[in-house]
Amino acid sequence: MPELPEVETVRNGLALKLQGRRLVRVDQHRPDLRFPLPIDFAQRLTGRQVQSLDRRAKYILIRVEGGLVWMIHLGMSGSMVVKPGPAGRPAAHDHLVFHTDDGWVVTYNDTRRFGFMDLFDEAAMDSHPMLAGLGPEPLGNGFHADGLSGRLRGRAAPIKSMLLDQKVVAGLGNIYVCEALFRAGIDPTRSADSVAGADAERLVPIIRDVLSEAIAAGGSTLRDFVQSDGELGYFQHSFQVYGREGEGCGRCDCDPAATGGVKRITQSGRSTFFCPRYQH
DNA sequence: CACACAACCTGTCAGC
DNA sequence: TGCTGACAGGTTGTGT
To answer: Which residues form the Formamidopyrimidine-DNA glycosylase catalytic domain (predicted)?
Structure first.
């Protein structure tokens, strides 16, 4: 499911219901997600007030009373859905259920269990292994052409793979990398090094635009992704290449029946969608 | 060090 | 209907 826009959408929805509320009960239905949950996770969260919700890359970082940070990563299939209580029977893969003092119920569901959570002291944030070493936020001031070029220069790996690397830029995933490279007319198989310079300069604002538009649309809804309020994001209707193998790309006037349209290839084990006639 | 690939886990869909 | 294989939005760890 979730790349930066989806995680931001979830953070927003959670903030509306959780900020300032106290967690009066936490039901934990299994000891682990992708990794073991911290010792006494549910017990340590119970009774604490939620202070603020932030996002870094694809992580949701929730400050709770007592100087703790509750970290959530949704993995591929995780969701946090908020509903008015009381809670019914947990559905399949409802691994954690959080109850607020004003009667809302937040359920973490994750079929594939690639997601994970942590709970640690605020002071340990900078050195947290999942957060240290992340690249700049693509929507922040720290993301700029000079910096991006610096990280791409000398790298032989394909630009597609480099942009998926969270150390290069934090928060992009398979969909938005494909879409950004398409909009920029950059062939995903080109070496990262060859994109440093003028192409990186064009790419930076395009990445910002794609992400901003997706956030404004409430993210993309694929398969079972739902926002925390149960609404559906609709940015998937704006995809120009992702998931559109064989269709016309809409930018070049090629006839998909004759040229094959959008192509799907595999790079570093992930599907890449692109138009070989429009992207060079 | 840089890069490719398998693994983690479950579900769905296409093809036979 | 049922089986098999491919594939799915991410990240980590291993191997070359």
So the answer is: 2-115
Q: How far is the CA of A271 from the C1' of C7 (A)?
A: 9
Å from the A2 CA to the B2 C1': 27
- All CATH 1.10.8.50 domain ranges of chain A, comma separated, are 145-274
**Structure confidence by residue, pLDDT tens digits, A126-167:** 999 999 999 999 999 999 999 999 999 999 999 999 999 999
**Residue A13 confidence (pLDDT):** 92
Residue of A230, A205, A232 lying closest to A217 (CA atoms)? A232
The token duo for A113 is 């269990």
Q: Could you name the CATH architecture of A4-124?
A: Alpha-Beta Barrel (3.20)
d(CA A277, CA A28): 51
How many other CB atoms are found less than 10 A from the CB of residue A39?
9
CA A215 to chain CA centroid, nearest Å: 11
Tokens of A56: 């870094």
* In the block, residue with structure tokens 């790349």: A3
Global pTM?
Answer: 0.96
From the Cβ of A57, is strand C under 7 Å away? yes
CATH class of A145-274: mainly alpha
